[in-house]
């Protein structure tokens, strides 16, 4: 009886495999990112009880574009992509030093846009056109810009605003690590060669490098590398597939 059952299951599996013909498609993808981070200020003063530091952030809207390779097994498909994807956040910080004459400090408002060369690999399940997908991604930092304004003040005066427009730096001697990684998941719809997906990207690598000397020079009373920061991105994408 067990042998018959085993043979029957093997036959059904073979039939299912034969009926699910593997096909390959190349797709062109474009989309919109609603990006932010989990960035929140850590309480890391350096022995100055009168020093305070606060931070808050909000989302930016950015874009992504690239190519997708699909290996289709029927209801299941493997979709790997090579994308240029922009992420980041709007970031506001405030520092304050208390003194006998009053408070001194600074307020900074910036829009940070980080450019990534991204490789997501998603497993996609499709039934009657509706899709569920999930999979990992890895990304390499390839540039970006930080733009904003800093306003310094003292008990006696407010100084002229300082406007900055800086290129984002990555690497061993920079504040931003070059590699990011995490997972994607979401829903979608496929009609013929056209696919639309709404997904969420959960970054799992911190976007701040461990404490380095030049952070002291910029933030002498706050260890910014101790502030947790991970990418959080809502993505709306469209892909058009071509048969290979």
Summarize the structure.
With 244 residues, this protein is mainly beta. It has helices at 2-19, 213-218, and strands spanning 23-37, 51-58, 60-72, 76-98, 103-127, 130-153, 162-167, 179-191, 194-203, 231-243. The model is unreliable at 15-19, 43-48 and 212-219 (pLDDT under 50).
**What Rg do the Cα atoms give?**
24 Å
CATH architecture of the domain at 20-45 and 54-91 and 114-145 and 176-243: Beta Barrel
CATH class of the domain at 20-45 and 54-91 and 114-145 and 176-243: Mainly Beta
The fold-level CATH name of the domain at 20-45 and 54-91 and 114-145 and 176-243 is Porin
Strand content: over 45%
Low-confidence stretches: 15-19, 43-48, 212-219
User: What is the helical fraction, as a range of percent?
Assistant: under 10%
Distance between the termini: 45 Å
Write out the strand line-up for the largest beta sheet, numbering strands in chain order.
1-3-4-5-6-8-9-10
Given helix and strand content, the structural type is: mainly beta
Spatial shape: elongated
- How many helices does DSSP assign? 2
State the major sheet. Answer: 8 strands, antiparallel, barrel
């Amino acid at each position: 009886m067990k042998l018959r059952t085993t043979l029957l299951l093997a036959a059904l599996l073979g039939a299912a495999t034969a009926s699910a013909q593997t096909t390959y498609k190349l797709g062109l993808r474009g989309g919109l990112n609603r990006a932010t981070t989990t960035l929140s200020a850590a309480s890391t003063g350096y022995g100055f009880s009168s020093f305070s530091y606060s931070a808050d952030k909000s989302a930016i809207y950015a874009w992504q574009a690239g190519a997708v390779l699909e290996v289709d097994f029927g209801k299941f498909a493997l979709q790997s992509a090579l994308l240029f994807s922009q992420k980041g956040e709007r970031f506001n910080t405030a520092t304050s030093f208390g003194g006998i004459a009053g408070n001194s400090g600074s307020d900074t408002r910036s829009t940070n846009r980080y450019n990534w060369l991204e490789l997501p690999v998603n497993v996609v399940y499709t039934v009657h056109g509706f899709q569920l997908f999930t999979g990992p991604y890895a990304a390499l930092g390839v540039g970006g810009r930080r733009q904003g304004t800093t306003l310094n003040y003292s008990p006696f005066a407010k100084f002229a605003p300082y406007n900055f427009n800086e290129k984002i730096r990555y690497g061993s001697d920079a504040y931003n690590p070059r590699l990011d990684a995490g997972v994607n998941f979401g829903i979608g719809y496929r009609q013929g060669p056209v696919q639309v997906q709404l997904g969420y990207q959960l970054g799992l690598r911190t976007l701040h490098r461990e404490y380095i000397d030049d952070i002291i020079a910029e933030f002498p009373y706050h260890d910014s590398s101790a502030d947790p920061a991970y990418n959080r991105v809502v993505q709306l994408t469209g892909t058009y597939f071509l048969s290979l």
